[in-house]
Amino acid sequence: MRGHGRLPDLALRTYGGSVVAASDESFAAKEALIRPGRPEFRPRTFGAKGQVYDGWETRRRREPGHEWAVVRLGLPGVIRSVVIDTAWFTGNYPPFASVEACTADGYPAPDELTGWVEIVPRAALTGDTAHEFEVTDPRRFTHVRVNVFPDGGVARMRVHGEVVPDPRLLSGLTVDLAALENGARVVACSDEFYSSPENVLAPGLARNQAEGWETARRRDGGNDWLIVALAGPGTVAVAELDTTNLLYNAPGAAALRGIDGRSAALDDEHAWFTLLPETRLQPDTRHRFRLDDDRPLTHARIDIFPDGGLARLRLLGSLLS
């Protein structure tokens, strides 16, 4: 079910990403590069600087050089692909672009970043197009820099990859083992008709139904489910099943099971053990359940009955040392 485009966008604003610097943003603000959702365009909408664009746009450069923008990844990790989207930029897109990345500890200022390496060589762009470039560098990065030659506009930049958190921030603490920002990921799902199951692992609270996971209405007598690979092997003490914003389409009930994938295959039904038996849920509610099973697990499976969705899934516990 997974290609690079299905991996999380490590730079997304709602995941904590930030455009921390840019050489120029005369026509359109740099912050638009990492906004969620597709770029929008309203023709003949003019401000003091010309047509309003939902993207980052620089001035027309009249001297040698090029423009650039630096993004601090909200979720540091291994980058697998970068998308440079010139949506709606037709007569003002950059003809070429490249991408660099670096790793930094702590919270340096933009001018303190060093050790930049090229992860996407200079490549040709066209207008109103989403260009995807594969990245093969296996290192963990915290920042990226997009370079456009010589100038122009980019609507969005997506940085798809695998989250690799700083282990110093997790060791010995109670953490959310199902959090995307801690390295958890959805590895299987029965249905994602309305919205992606990865949403249940996202940071923060869901603001609407689209920011959670929602399935189609089942007519076959079965139930929907998803399996999450946890941040690492650990034990879970508290489970939070959040149906916020699901007013008329929340599941009637849910159950939670775990498995230690270090010693059993995920398709071995007998290896799964119950963490939370089938339990009634309420609409638009954050349900919290204390769990009494201290067996280690690497994966969790949540079954919802019969269908519906969840806004968030939180599994609070400890990583094994």
Automatic annotation (TrEMBL):
From which source organism is this entry?
Microtetraspora malaysiensis
**NCBIfam families in the record:** allantoicase
Return the InterPro entries for the record.
Answer: Allantoicase, Allantoicase_dom, Galactose-bd-like_sf
Where is the Allantoicase domain positioned along the sequence?
Answer: 16-163, 183-318
**What protein does this entry describe?**
Probable allantoicase
Per UniProt, the enzyme's principal EC class comes to: hydrolase
Which EC number(s) does UniProt give? 3.5.3.4
**Protein family (similarity comment):** Belongs to the allantoicase family.
The cross-references to HAMAP family, in alphabetical order and at most eight, read: Allantoicase
Ranked from the top, the taxonomy reads: Bacteria, Bacillati, Actinomycetota, Actinomycetes, Streptosporangiales
Q: Which UniProt keywords apply?
A: Hydrolase, Purine metabolism
- Looking at the keywords, is Hydrolase present? yes
Q: Which GO terms describe its molecular function?
A: allantoicase activity
Q: In which pathway does it act?
A: Nitrogen metabolism; (S)-allantoin degradation; (S)-ureidoglycolate from allantoate (aminidohydrolase route): step 1/1
Task: Tell me what reaction this enzyme catalyses.
Answer: allantoate + H2O = (S)-ureidoglycolate + urea
